[in-house]
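Please fill in the sequence for the structure shown.

STRUCTURE ENCODING:
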């Protein structure tokens, strides 16, 4: 029977021998979202020199994703903050007054609320101008329609069209952009927003 006790000499374990041979461990961080980038930075600050960040999508930032349509930028992601204790993103949001009361009057802990104090959704452009409710609803309906198209593809394995050969993200962005650009029923407010 083998003993599972440590010999007390960690220099004899395989990891230590490998580190002595190579000098530094090779570290791979999976994902270039905020957490992955923060992990890579922390590793570099701790003296690790062989750090590689891998990202599957065509952009870094994870859920943080901006879509530009004309002169307007829509933020499609990063609508909440995971955790508050010791989270620098939460502290930054709090310091800049971005955390609000929730609809039940409680403090929004661990996320940025999408709701104002009176419970009405508030969406803003990158310039801080409020986006009209009808435009938000139209965009949301369109996004949901395209999302359902992608789900249909995965349920039945049938291409929606030639564009579906791209990633789901590329397909969704292109469909949304084309529909918004080509909509003959755009209101004047929507045209100005684009």
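FILLED IN BY: designer on duty
SEQUENCE:
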């Amino acid at each position: 029977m083998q003993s599972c006790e440590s010999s007390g000499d960690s220099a004899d374990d395989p990891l230590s021998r490998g580190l002595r041979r190579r000098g530094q461990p090779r570290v791979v961080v999976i994902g270039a979202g905020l957490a992955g980038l923060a992990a890579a930075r922390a590793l570099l600050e701790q003296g690790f020199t062989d750090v590689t960040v891998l990202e599957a999508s065509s952009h870094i930032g994870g859920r943080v994703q901006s879509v530009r349509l004309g002169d307007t930028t829509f933020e499609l992601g990063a609508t909440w903050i995971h955790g508050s204790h010791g989270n620098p993103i939460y502290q930054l949001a709090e310091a800049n007054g971005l955390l609000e009361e929730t609809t039940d009057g409680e403090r929004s802990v661990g996320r940025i609320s999408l709701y104002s104090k009176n419970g009405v959704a508030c969406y803003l452009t990158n310039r801080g101008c409020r986006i009209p409710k009808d435009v938000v609803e139209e965009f949301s309906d369109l996004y949901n329609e395209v999302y359902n198209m992608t789900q249909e593809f995965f349920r039945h394995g049938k291409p929606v069209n030639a564009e579906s050969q791209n990633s789901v993200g590329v397909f969704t962005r292109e469909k949304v952009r084309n529909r918004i650009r080509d909509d003959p029923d755009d209101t004047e407010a929507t045209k100005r927003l684009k």
